[in-house]
Amino acid sequence: MAIRLSLLVGFSLLALAAPAGAEDKPIIAPRPDWVKPVSPAASVTGNEGAAVSMLLADQQVLFEPDRQTSYFASAIKIQTPQGLAAGNISLPWRPDTDTLKIHSLLIRRGDKVIDVLGSGQTFTVVRREPNLDSATLDGVLTANIQPEGLQVGDVLEFSASITSSDPTLKGHAEQVAGAWNQVPVGVAHLRMQWPSTMPIRLRQTQILPALKTVKSGAVASAELTLEQTKPFQPPKGAPTRFAVGRLIEATDFKDWSQISALMAPLYIKAAQIAPAGPLAAELARIKQASPSPKARAEAALALVQERVRYVALQLGTGNYVPADADTTWSRRFGDCKGKSALLVALLHGLDIEAEPVLVSTVLGDGLDERLPIVGLFDHVIVRATIAGRTYWLDGTRLGDSDLDRIPTPAFGWALPVQESLATLTRLVPTPLTAPQEDLAIRIDASAGLSLPAPTHIDWVYRGDAAMGLNLALSNLTPEVRDRSLKDFWKKNFDFVEVKTTNSAFDPKTGEMRITMDGTAKMDWSDNRYETDRTSVGYTADFTREPGAFHDAPFAVAYPYFSRTIETIVLPPGNTGFQVGTNADLDETIAGIAYRRKASLKGNVFTIEKTERSAAPEFAATEAAAAQARLRALGKEAVYLMEPAGYVRTRAERDAVLKETPTTATGLVDRGVLLMDDGRYDAAIEALTKAATLEPKNAWALANRGIARTWKGETTAAKADLDAAAAIDPKNFVMLHGRAFLASRTNDRAAAMAALNEAIALDPKDLYSLELRSSALWESGDYERALADADAYIALFPSAVQSYVLRANLYRRLGKPKEAEAQAGLLIKANPDMAYAHVAAARILSSFGKDAEALAEFDRALAIQPEAYIYLNRALSRPKADITGRSADLDAALKLDPKRFDALAARGDLQAETGDLPAAIASYTAAVKESPSDAGLLTARGILYSKSNQPVLADKDFAAARAAAKDATALNNMCWRKATAGIGLESALLDCNAALEKVPDSPAYLDSRGLVLLRLGKLDDAISDYDKVLAANAQMPTSLYGRAVAWSRKGDRARALKDHDLAVKIDPKVEQRFDEFGVKL
Questions:
Q1: Which secondary-structure segment (H or E) carries 81?
Q2: CB 821 within 8 A of CB 852
Q3: 909 Cβ contact list (under 8 Å, min separation 6)
Q4: Mind telling me which Pfam families this protein's record contains (predicted)?
Q5: Domain limits at 300?
Q6: CA neighbor of 701 nearest in space, from 671, 676, 674
Q7: Strands (E), 620-688
Q8: What is the mean pLDDT of the chain?
């Protein structure tokens, strides 16, 4: 490794200008008499294994009225072969301003001393302009030597001095030294000496001992020696002012205003425009183009930025003296000084207040704590004032076409160049009002969650990032640019297949926009989708080792502002999508304000996340809490939850079913889809093929067991589920299947055991919690069902169905206030979800709160009008509101003309109003859309019966019986006939068939009880109702039905007791029985 000696001995020397007789090669000369010799350390403690050891770093400075000399000496021990590179000594200096003298170069090898220069080896001098790649001309020469024969174990001693003087500074002296921070040093020494008549002031950083000035006759001096220094470790994450470390400053400037006054005449002279020259013509053109001062200033800035190339000029006195405006314009190139002088000249010519300003691009933070030193500044900009507003203009930038978009630069402090009374001015940007990066993602998953989703992404950059990206892309050929953009998108969104890309820069707004269109393969594993680039937090580490400035504040990326908006269009008609927990966020942590808000309106999900820094730093006292919070947030993602009963779209089904899977996984997926479609035979066939390919595939066996359960093949289903359990006793599909099978056979204990096991394996198994709470509800164990519903909501606060279940449970528990309150809690958890407002409306309607219910329906429609909302509002309106119900059904069918449940609801309304032909026509249209729906066929059969068309009625009843594949369908047929009072003997057969499949089912016994009641078989009806109420004492329909039976048997007391309890549990139960034509 190449180690530059000047860096090892301390802070790089300030190169001052123009001594008489400056040389273009180093002078070999003895050490100056004023230098005090310093002996190196024998070793550096704890540095034995390093490549080199710095035994001595000595710097001594002599200030004189017209010049200053910096002497430096070092002794380096070479400890490993890698350390030999330290012998490559390179000394840069400016021959126009500096005189370089070499005093000694020795190799000490034990007792032997080798004089490298005395042996005839010389320095090689080269002119390299090392900064040409950054458009800098500095005229630097470099003296280089590689001592011959250097060996491991040698000590290399070197001393040299540079004498500098600069007439521009008018005799002022300044120096920065003592920066012993990077490597351990055995002896670190600094001595400064000056005539006592010079008003030299000194300042050392806090971690150094205080310097004392000693006067001896006409000479003043200060000296500091440190032994065995360790590298300075700045506090992690602190602002740059805490990274200075060891440093000593010297200056004779009284204050900052003296520096400003020194520079002011240079810029006043340079900022003049010859009356009849080319630049004057440009000025006249700008004046003529617009009378607006702001537009004129923008034109002047554009001239300086776009038409004058930037080249740093540091030749001769170029370090401080700006080229005059006409010269810079004629050259068409200039440095920051010349460009600023040119801009000031133009602005003054336009009658705009403006002045140059000195800034430091590196040392600005904490500049106000430093001594006034010209060399601390490395850049010049312009402060302009227009209509009372300050603008900071930088001629070396590009593309600042709008003054209002130019941010205040983050230089910390600025020194206006004025003839008198100038002071440092704070230069800190205000928080950004527009994002630097603005990302908008739109994914259209309306065709189905499992299908490739058309995706469009806009990424807008503003500010310097926009300029840089535009410049980078502009330099590429179209083919390379397109490939680069595709690679960029693929790297950032690897789940999207990129189809097309584009990029465009808008010079009027300064925005760079890159766009991409493609298709996304969304990952809905675990029935949820992790939203893209919406997470906040990270593995923050704000810990610090003990040491200097341990309690320093932490720096913040400032100013900083980013925004991400993601929009996902979901499949319409699938209600119940939910936003996961912790989506909304509004916290300021470690100086960054994090804001996140998610909403679900209709089938459109939107989430917006912003991160914006409010200040440049935050206190160390906040670090521990900030670290903990950011780490916690970093582990949390925002999920969009798929509804438990998600129904795949037709397009999804077609996509899967048109394929012929050849793997067990593909066949299982096909089987599940066929099962969801109710095509159990085809599902069993696909799952059997999967099990044949992989006999130990528990998923295939478990799903086949469920398919056979739904088909009623309980023995075969049990065998499949047992086989799956033998392979994987923790397979959750198998446990769900056992619960289904036990429920079908009315084995509540077995169903509960399976669900308990599933929840024990995964307490966050929402599906099992939902199944168990429903099972407990059906069994009348309302307290435990309520506990499960509470647990579900705790895990998933936006779960609509759980609030509805909880409302029903509270009602059954005789707590109407708590039941009704679920509507408000539901809306609070899902304020932007239309489905939640619909569910809340149904809860309110069930308590007779019709006005409040209608208001919730209106809110749902305001979010997004959908057919199901109008349908539910029609079903919730009072029976007497024929006009309102009819209008709602018309609106639903206008949005979805083929929605069979809306067609059926219209048929029911038409039947109520006595228009049986129209009702039959509506049901016929519904049956056309769902020809195998036993419920629709039964309902139409009832209408045919009421219309005295018994043949058609019997035909529909027979078709319904054939379509009824399970006990649930049979029970629904029985209940429809019982409530209509039609086909009661047929209804009795339906109920008996259902009970054969699931003996002693309370729901099925309740249905048969009503059939028997209407058939006049009162004792049989009471017997069925007794069985129901023994299992669930809170079943309101069984209580009311038994009340009617007791009344008809003449037992008024028992009738009233059952009646009162039924109405207490469900206030509308009596109304419904009256509508059935069954009165007490």
A1: none
A2: no
A3: 874, 882, 885, 886, 889
A4: DUF3857 (PF12969), TPR_16 (PF13432)
A5: 257-427
A6: 671
A7: 639-641
A8: 92
CA distance 607 to 442: 11
Domain identity same for 1045 and 1076 = yes
Residue 550 one-letter amino acid: H
* Residue 886 resides in a domain: no
| 897 domain-assigned | no
The answer to whether the CB of 368 falls within 8 A of the CB of 304 is no
DSSP states of 415-429: EE--SS----EEE-P
Residues 64 and 173 in one domain: yes
Q: Is residue 514 part of a domain?
A: no
Q: In the structure, what pLDDT confidence band is assigned to residue 926 with cuts at 50, 70 and 90?
A: very high
| Per-residue pLDDT, 728 | 96
Could you tell me if 881 and 912 are in contact, meaning their C-beta atoms sit under 8 angstroms apart? no
Q: Read off the pLDDT of each residue in 801-809 and give the average, rounded to a whole number.
A: 91
Contacts 24+ apart (CB under 8 A), 753-762: 758/732, 761/730, 761/732, 761/735, 762/732
Q: How far is CA 934 from CA 779, 930, 956, 1059, in A?
A: 26, 9, 9, 32
Going by pLDDT thresholds of 50, 70 and 90, the confidence category of residue 128 is low
Distance CA 901, CA 891 (A): 14
**Residue 886 burial by Cβ neighbours in a 10 Å radius (0-12, 13-18, 19+):** middle
pTM of the model: 0.73
Residues 245 and 271 in one domain: no
| Phi and psi at residue 748, to the nearest 5° | -65, -35
Q: What is the pLDDT of residues 291-328, one digit of tens each?
A: 999 999 999 999 999 999 998 765 444 478 999 999 99
Number of H helices, E strands in the chain: 35, 37
pLDDT in tens, 678-734: 789 999 999 999 999 999 999 999 999 999 998 889 999 999 999 999 999 999 999
Give, in degrees to the nearest 5, the angle at Cα 60 between 54 and 61. Answer: 145
**904 exposure class (CB count in 10 Å sphere: 0-12, 13-18, 19+):** buried
Which residues lie across from 74 on neighbouring strands? 57, 158
Kind of pairing between the strands at 312-313 and 219-229: unpaired
Note whether 168 and 298 are same-domain residues: no
